[in-house]
Amino acid sequence: MKRFSFIAPALLVLSLAGCIFDHDDSGDRLRAERYFPLKENTSWTYRDTYGNGLEGTSTLAITGKKTQEGHEYAVFCVEGTETENYFRIENNVVYVYMGNTAALPLPENSQRRRAAMPAFVMSAGEHEWPYFDFSAKIGDTWEIYRDKLSLVDAVTDVVITGKLTTGAVEVESGSYGDCAIFAITTVRETVYSDNRPARNEKNTVTWWLARDIGLVKQTQEIQSGDNPPEIIESELLYYSVPF
């Protein structure tokens, strides 16, 4: 799973005193539209830091709309790559459409990382599912996706879960006190038909989504077997959201 001038810096800094969580009419739910903008020509530029000490920047932009299977999606593209995903909002849930092919991490030697892109694997034939559930109870964990993938010499169980919390974060572009924080965890266990040991992988992507801005920080922790975890971090440098 995988894949990014401008407004005055003063507009990027939100004072904690002025940050109030935005709820829907029921008064007890965060509004997805306020935390996950889908307006065309919105863009975000991030500083990406990799576990090997390398750094880079990436820019994510909403370039248009696309209809898939009767639904209209906003198209998210990473500049300079062919990477794109599709997102839409319905009933306070952000849905992602990945197409018919498996979505896997970019090669580790790629400097165009997956900032603001979902990290998971899906079997062929699956198209979309709920990714960010803004109606979830804060602090609870829910299941997003589960599947068993049969390969020639192995079977892989895949489970994706989500957890919603709220809080503040400080990054290069400023301090954001109104964040909806989603931790999306993918666990894969592969059992081989021969004598090879089972392979366990865990990938947790945490998204800090600020009101009226979108993704301001993302961390990705990749754990494969007994190897030390790889940690990738993206922090917002600047953004442009049309009004």
What do you see in this structure?
This protein has 243 residues and is mostly beta strands. Helix content is 2%, strand content 53%. The protein has a 12-stranded antiparallel beta sheet. The model is unreliable at 1-28, 100-116 and 118-125 (pLDDT under 50).
Structure at a glance:
The chain has 243 residues and is mostly beta strands. 2% of the residues lie in helices and 53% in strands.
User: What is the SS-derived class?
Assistant: mainly beta
Count of DSSP H/I helices = 1
The global form is: globular
**Helical amount among residues, as a percent range?**
under 10%
Strand order of the largest sheet: 6-5-4-3-2-1-12-11-10-9-8-7
Separation, N- and C-terminal Cα atoms: 30 Å
What does the radius of gyration come to?
18 Å
Average pLDDT, rounded to a whole number, is: 79
